[in-house]
From TrEMBL:
Coiled coil: none annotated. One of its GO terms (molecular function) is oxidoreductase activity. CDD domains: MDR6. This is Zinc-dependent alcohol dehydrogenase family protein. Gene3D superfamilies: Medium-chain alcohol dehydrogenases, catalytic domain, NAD(P)-binding Rossmann-like Domain. InterPro entries: ADH-like_N (IPR013154), ER (IPR020843), GroES-like_sf (IPR011032), NAD(P)-bd_dom_sf (IPR036291), YIM1/Zinc_Alcohol_DH_Fams (IPR050700). SUPFAM superfamilies: GroES-like, NAD(P)-binding Rossmann-fold domains. Pfam families: ADH_N, ADH_zinc_N_2. Residues 10-324 form the Enoyl reductase (ER) domain. It comes from the Bacteria.
């Protein structure tokens, strides 16, 4: 099979011919129709993501959508011809999705949404798993709550808005001036972080009480801001980028709580992989009900144009999630 291989951090991906994989115990073989590109994928290529445990040479690509072409004898629930999606590799020594085929743990997969294209499906796994772990698993978002999402127009943020709305919450989201219409069109109340301080939007949006849930998808000083934007006593801050050095004093003085999300853990440790498959099944139900649609960049890319796709994501010039087609002909 053809695949894009990273041979040295910080260098260009090389197109190579590799042996076709075959499924071992617990695995299915997937012919990959689309590979989603995340900012984390580009950081791994640059050598700026030690937490991903990448072992070189490596086939990168966290997310995929494709068709099952073979099933190990001990796997139930999947059959040849099933259209699936998942976050299945690209870290911890597991082959990624920038290839024509991948043999993956079936627990990481789910039937992909019928209402979405293959490329839209490939754009979802990492971001929807992260948003679900944050808003559902950790914060337990429910009807009547107010939810603030930092970075509402981003890859994780725009999915988190839709998920919080589907959970019955009143949703607010911060973003740049250019992202206000995108946030509004997603159904959230936009907040221009460059025009309003935390104290100002806390007063105008919550009467100074704070938000029930604050989801940080940005990190750095935005996480510090989250600690002062959450409601006293019952508020919950959750972050997908909760590393670095932060003072917990503002959070503690509000009597609120904090959780972190590390969506790569099942891939890296083998723990709770079936939960990722379960999340994606829920995501499929939401998408097929019209409650979840990823923003997709309209440009198309294949293995020969991977460098351009990665450069667009690295420099923030994408107009939605980007997906690459690694196979030729019908999937």
């Amino acid at each position: 099979m053809r695949a894009a291989v990273l041979e040295s951090f910080g260098t260009a991906l090389q197109i190579r011919d590799l042996p076709d994989p075959s499924p071992t115990s617990g695995e299915v073989l997937v012919r990959i129709a689309a590979s989603g590109v995340n900012p984390l994928d580009t950081k791994i290529r640059q050598g700026h993501a030690a937490h991903a445990g990448t072992v070189l040479p490596a086939v990168l690509g966290l997310d995929l959508a494709g068709t099952v072409t073979a099933v190990a004898s001990d796997v139930t629930g999947f059959s040849v011809g099933d259209e699936v999606y998942g976050m299945t590799g690209g870290v911890g020594g597991h082959q990624g999705s920038l290839a024509e085929f991948a043999s993956v743990d079936h627990r990481l997969l789910a039937p992909r949404p019928h209402t979405l294209s293959t490329h839209q499906s490939a754009a979802l796994p990492l971001v929807v798993i992260t948003a679900w772990e944050a808003l559902v698993d950790r914060a337990r978002v429910h009807p009547g709550q107010s939810v603030l999402i930092h970075g509402g127009a981003g890859g994780i943020g725009h999915v988190a808005i839709q998920l919080a709305l589907a959970r019955g919450a009143e949703v607010y989201a911060t973003g740049s001036p250019a992202s206000q219409d995108t946030i509004r069109n997603l159904g959230a109340t936009p907040i221009d972080y460059s025009a309003e301080s935390v104290a100002e939007y806390l007063e105008t949006r919550t009467g100074g009480e704070g938000f029930d849930v604050v989801f940080d998808t940005v990190g750095g000083t935005t996480l510090d801001d989250s600690f002062t934007a959450v409601k006293h006593y019952t508020g919950h801050v959750v972050s997908a980028l909760g590393w670095g050095t932060h003072s917990l004093a503002p959070l503690s003085f509000r009597g609120a709580s904090y959780s972190g999300v590390f969506a790569l853990m099942p891939l890296l440790t083998g723990r709770a992989r079936e939960h990722h498959g379960s999340i994606l099944r829920h995501a499929t139900e939401l998408a097929d009900a019209g409650a979840l649609t990823p923003r997709l960049d309209p440009r198309t890319f294949d293995l020969e144009t991977i460098a351009e796709a990665y450069d667009i994501v690295e420099t923030g010039r994408n107009r939605g999630k980007i997906a690459i087609t690694p196979t030729e002909g019908p999937a």
